[in-house]
TrEMBL record:
Transmembrane stretches, start-end: none
Database matches in PROSITE patterns: ACT, ASPARTOKINASE, HOMOSER_DHGENASE
Annotated function: Bifunctional aspartate kinase and homoserine dehydrogenase that catalyzes the first and the third steps toward the synthesis of lysine, methionine and threonine from aspartate.
Species whose genome carries this gene: Flavobacterium frigoritolerans
Protein's UniProt name: Bifunctional aspartate kinase/homoserine dehydrogenase I
Record domain ACT: where: 400-478
Highest taxon above the source species: Bacteria
Cofactor(s) listed in the protein's UniProt record: a metal cation
Biological or metabolic pathway of the protein: Amino-acid biosynthesis; L-lysine biosynthesis via DAP pathway; (S)-tetrahydrodipicolinate from L-aspartate: step 1/4; Amino-acid biosynthesis; L-threonine biosynthesis; L-threonine from L-aspartate: step 1/5; Amino-acid biosynthesis; L-methionine biosynthesis via de novo pathway; L-homoserine from L-aspartate: step 3/3; Amino-acid biosynthesis; L-threonine biosynthesis; L-threonine from L-aspartate: step 3/5
The organism's taxonomic lineage, starting at the top: Bacteria, Pseudomonadati, Bacteroidota, Flavobacteriia, Flavobacteriales
Subunit structure, as described in the record: Homotetramer.
Family: In the C-terminal section; belongs to the homoserine dehydrogenase family.
Length: 815
């Protein structure tokens, strides 16, 4: 004998029921079967809401009844030949009429008792099992039907009745001893009290009905057919990377289901565990996949953590006060009062000082519990020995479960540090005495992030997912996306980093995709996106609350640089090639650095100086290892270098500057380069990263540009002024020629003073041969005294800048 249970989705409509019948017919060739079915998907919820509406005098319960009726009639019509429909349709209509009469009663009385609620909820399974049994009869002549209410007997704790196993087992055995149908269909979830009143076994209880039958009949196996490929390492609807667990022990499965793995109703395991009957969880929609096998076997080869589960809608109640210390019986009184109120305690921790005790219960029980506890401790509260209890709502419990966890140290540390790195605040911690689970209470808004980051850490070979929010898709941005696209596979395979672009924005449009934007077709996605809005962009990144989020600023925009603070405060890392923030007032630079530390969110800006060259990273490493920078000499403007390397007697200054722009070596506003501002910002950032406090106006900047050119307000006027002042530029060039030197725009720092400006560089100087758009930096430090540390290479251009940004992103991935 095998017991099969099909859940709500499996019997959601005629099409699904046909699949179920196929599975049943196939299985019944080998074994005698009892098939337990749930209500059609969502029907129990509909019944619950119809009852609540009727009891609160809201007539729309009638619409719900109409919806329920249509659903069942449609299903029936699609399963049964027309010639045989009429009597069956009348029967379904009669059941629906009965339901409506009950609801009318609730409406008229304005009342709904738990007992009536159970009767109303029972209609879901009554209807589904009737239709399925009739449909099966069409193809399987040796099939029958039995009403579970006649076999499963309970007390009358309506809503979640307790089974009387003695009576139930006997009734089940007697019935099946006398029944020789090859298949018997039965409704799940419903039962009756010894005096014949309808009861239910609790929401999700059809699993339990099937287990009760399996236990009573010593079944070979209990198969739970549902809509996923078994019990997963985490809820697959929330954690996309979750995998089905092949084998798992009863205890582990019980622990996971108790902590929220809805795929199995927790009490289900009890009746089969005693008899050692295995449970197999299978997918109705992929019957060939193996599913999960639950038994008493534990293999030491199993992964340490078997699964992660969670329960939403939790409230934490803390009872605290000096009167709790050493007074035996405080906890007993607390639990007694909760038990009297039928409040289920899901989570308990007590500090070893016994000064406080903390319990987790469902949000829906919180008010009731608060009142009851404060009432029970009224005397102590008035004597100030105990404080009134504190209730925190909207929390969630997350549990790591595994039989082998007890043999490993450091798991809780790993769990807490993983959550801490993602700024998930832990409100309370509990470890079961069996050491089979560690559970923590966190804020509900962090659930998805917490589950995913824990799953990544414990199950995914340490693959780290980075979620990027990219602003700015000009020359550099475009290259950056292209580079990620080309490199994704390599990063995944070799560095175990999975880079996804969640959001893209330019100044006009923005687009979001929680599953990652296709990097092949990102342009189209962006064009079809919504109107760009910085505030919405930030709000969305916050709300998505994804692990390892990184904001990437590829603009040169001051207002974008003002958003970093917001991101860092959400523990969202910031990677930027925009120099404005790091060269703004010292206090702002310092604040961002501190926020980064405080919120554990990297703030990286390698490309602020020398594009992709590893300059800032080098300074950081020097300082971190105890070196001290005394002097910096550098050519930091790829654009100015390009301009002065190309400017000679054969061309005009105007044309060279234009060409530099066309090739993408200047800022959109070339004045920023030519005025020396850009270079001043860069040396300022190097000085700050070297550990000195300085502001931009402390940097001497004697410009070689005519004042008139710098005063222009648009590019057209600016270029016109370059033509007008051609003789000025020619004179500078001639002077360099006469001195046998080359023109370089040099930034310097020494003895606490900094300057930028055009210099005549003689032949023997390391800057003399600097080609094209190259940058060079010389660091003189405690360790590099005579021969400076020299970094040289291409310091401008979209591709190298993009790769510098990319390198910062990878640095975060490698943390
Ligand atoms: P049924 O109606 O078949 O009884 P349920 O909705 O009760 O199905 O249970 C199946 C659902 O349980 C899945 O669709 C999934 O969303 C949820 N679930 C939660 N945690 C897990 C888990 N660890 N493994 C598998 N499913 C899970
Ligand atoms: N139909 C019931 C519910 O939705 C029982 C079940 O599906 O297991 O709770
Ligand atoms: Mg279920």
């Amino acid at each position: 004998m095998k017991i099969l249970k099909f859940g709500g989705t499996s019997v959601a409509n005629a099409e699904n029921i046909k699949r179920v019948l196929e599975i049943v017919n196939q299985k019944s060739e080998q074994d005698q079967l009892v098939v337990v079915v749930s209500a059609l998907s969502k029907v129990t919820d509909l019944l619950q809401s119809a009852a609540a509406k009727a009891a609160s005098n809201d007539e729309s319960y009638k619409d719900i009844v109409a919806e329920i009726e249509k659903k069942h009639l449609d299903t029936l019509k699609a399963l049964i030949p027309v010639s045989e429909q009429s009597s069956l349709l009348s029967h379904v209509k009669r059941i629906i009429n009965h339901l409506e009469t009950l609801l009318d009663g609730c409406f008229l009385l304005g009342e709904l008792s738990n007992r009536t609620a159970d009767t109303i909820l029972s209609f879901g399974e009554l209807l589904s099992s009737y239709i399925i049994a009739e449909a099966l009869k069409q193809t399987n002549k040796n099939s029958g039907y039995k009403d579970s209410r006649e076999l499963i007997k309970t007390n009358n704790h309506f809503g979640k009745a307790a089974v009387n196993f003695e009576v139930t087992n006997q009734l089940i055995r007697e019935y099946f001893a006398a029944n020789d149908s090859q298949v018997v269909i039965m409704p799940g979830f419903i039962a009756s009290s010894l005096d014949g009143i309808i009861t239910t076994l609790g929401r999700g209880g059809s699993d339990y009905s099937a287990a009760i039958l399996a236990g009573a009949l010593d079944a070979k196996v209990l198969e739970i057919w549902t809509d996923v490929n078994g019990m997963y390492t985490a809820n697959p609807k929330i954690v996309k990377q979750a995998q089905p667990i092949a084998t798992i022990s009863y205890q582990e499965a019980m622990e996971l289901s108790h902590f929220g793995a809805k795929v199995l109703y927790p009490p289900t395991i009890q009746p089969v565990l005693r008899k050692n009957i295995p449970i197999v969880i299978k997918n109705t929609f992929e019957p060939e996949s193996a599913g999960t096998y639950i038994s008493n076997q534990v293999s030491s080869k199993d992964t340490i953590v078997k699964g992660i589960s969670h329960i939403d809608n939790i409230s934490l109640i803390t009872l605290e006060g000096p009167g709790m210390i050493g007074v035996s019986g405080s906890s007993k009184r607390l639990f007694e009062v909760l038990s009297n109120e039928s409040i289920n305690v899901i989570f308990i921790t007590q500090a070893s000082s016994e000064h406080s005790i903390c319990i987790g219960i469902l949000n829906s029980d919180a008010e009731n519990a608060e009142q009851a506890i404060n009432g029970a401790f009224e005397v102590e509260i008035t004597q100030n020995k105990v404080d009134p209890c504190v209730v925190e709502k909207n929390l969630c419990i997350i549990a790591l479960v595994g039989e082998n966890m007890k043999n490993h140290q450091g798991l809780s540390g790993r769990m807490f540090s993983t959550l801490g790195k993602n700024n998930v605040n832990i409100r309370a911690i509990a470890q079961g005495a069996s050491e089979r689970n560690i559970s923590v209470v966190i804020n509900e808004r962090d659930v998805k992030k917490a589950l995913n980051t824990l799953h990544e850490n414990f199950f995914e070979e340490n693959t780290k997912q980075l979620n990027l929010f990219v602003m700015g898709v000009g020359n550099v941005g475009e290259k950056f996306i292209e580079q990620i696209h080309n490199q994704r596979k390599f990063l995944k395979e070799n560095l175990k980093i999975n880079v996804r672009v969640i959001a893209l924005s330019n100044s006009r449009k923005m687009v979001f995709d929680e599953d990652g934007i296709s990097l092949k077709e990102w342009q189209a996605a962006l064009e079809n996106g919504e109107t760009a809005n910085k505030d919405t962009f930030i709000a969305r990144a916050k709300d998505l609350n994804l692990r390892n989020s990184i904001f990437v600023d590829i603009t040169a925009n001051a207002s974008v640089s003002e958003t970093y603070e917001e991101f860092l405060k959400q523990s969202i890392a910031v990677v930027t090639c925009n120099k404005i923030a790091c060269s703004s007032e010292y206090d702002n630079y310092k604040k961002l650095k501190n926020l980064s530390r405080q919120f554990n969110a990297p703030f990286l800006f390698e490309t602020n100086v020398g594009a992709g060259l590893p300059i800032i990273d080098t300074v950081k490493n020097l300082i971190a290892s105890g070196d001290k920078v005394h002097k910096i000499q550098a050519v930091l403007s790829g654009s100015l270098n390009f301009i002065f390397n190309n400017f000679d007697e054969n061309n005009s200054f105007h044309d060279v500057v234009k060409e530099a722009g066309v090739q993408g070596f200047t800022e959109p506003d070339p004045k920023i380069d030519l005025s020396g501002i850009d270079v001043a910002r860069k040396i300022l950032i190097l000085i700050r990263e070297s550990g000195y406090e300085m502001d931009i106006d402390a940097i001497a900047n004697e410009s070689f540009m005519p004042a008139e050119s710098l005063a222009t307000t648009n590019n057209e006027d600016f270029f016109a002024s370059l033509t007008k002042h051609a003789p000025h530029f020619k004179a500078i060039y001639d002077e360099a020629l006469s001195k046998d030197s080359r023109l370089k725009y040099v930034a310097q720092f020494e003895n606490g003073k900094a300057s930028v400006g055009l210099q005549f560089i003689p032949k023997d100087h390391p800057f003399y041969n600097l080609e094209g758009k190259d940058n060079i930096v010389l660091f003189y430090t405690d360790r590099y005294v005579d021969q400076p540390l020299l970094i040289k290479g291409a310091g401008a251009g979209a591709a190298v800048t993009a790769s510098g940004i990319f390198a910062d992103v990878i640095r975060i991935g490698n943390v």
